[in-house]
Design goal:
141 residues; mainly beta; six-stranded antiparallel β-sheet; two-stranded antiparallel ribbon
């Protein structure tokens, strides 16, 4: 069983490129990269929204990994990722995405596993961009 939490704060004068963003394999599976982040009206493209991130970050994961093969070259995982980067933390602003996946270890790649995950957001904002499948090679989570 693996539990993880990331908590971060930034100041009021922080430029948007240094804000916190959520979505993607390393933050919230089930969403595209930065796809679960705050937006505002774009100043350069009227009628469109720009992803600006948030001044606060609270991201969590609960993951259980289990062997499928005796040599541990194939393992399964079940997980739930949840959290927000909104400045106003409420249940309404919380994103939640449970899922499952496989970890494949191949001798040619050394100890770094190939991660194949499927996650379905069950709590999200209307403007969020979802991505059910994610693929990653390495230990980054």
């Amino acid at each position: 069983l693996s539990l993880g939490t990331v908590l971060g704060f930034s100041g009021p004068d922080t430029p948007s490129y240094d804000n916190f963003y959520a979505g993607g394999y390393n933050t919230l599976r089930g969403f595209v990269f930065r796809g679960a982040s705050p937006r505002q009206q774009s100043t350069t493209n009227p009628g469109q929204e720009a992803i600006v991130g948030g001044p606060f970050e609270w991201l969590n994961t609960v993951e259980y990994m289990f062997p499928i093969t005796a040599d541990d070259s194939l393992r399964g995982v079940v997980f739930t990722d949840f959290g927000t980067v909104e400045s106003n933390v409420t249940i309404k602003n919380m994103r939640v995405a449970p899922g499952f996946g496989l970890r494949i270890t191949m001798p040619a790649l050394g100890p770094a596993p190939i991660a194949l995950d499927f996650a379905v957001p069950v709590s999200y904002a209307d403007f969020d961009s979802q991505q059910l499948f994610s693929f990653f090679v390495g230990f980054a989570r």
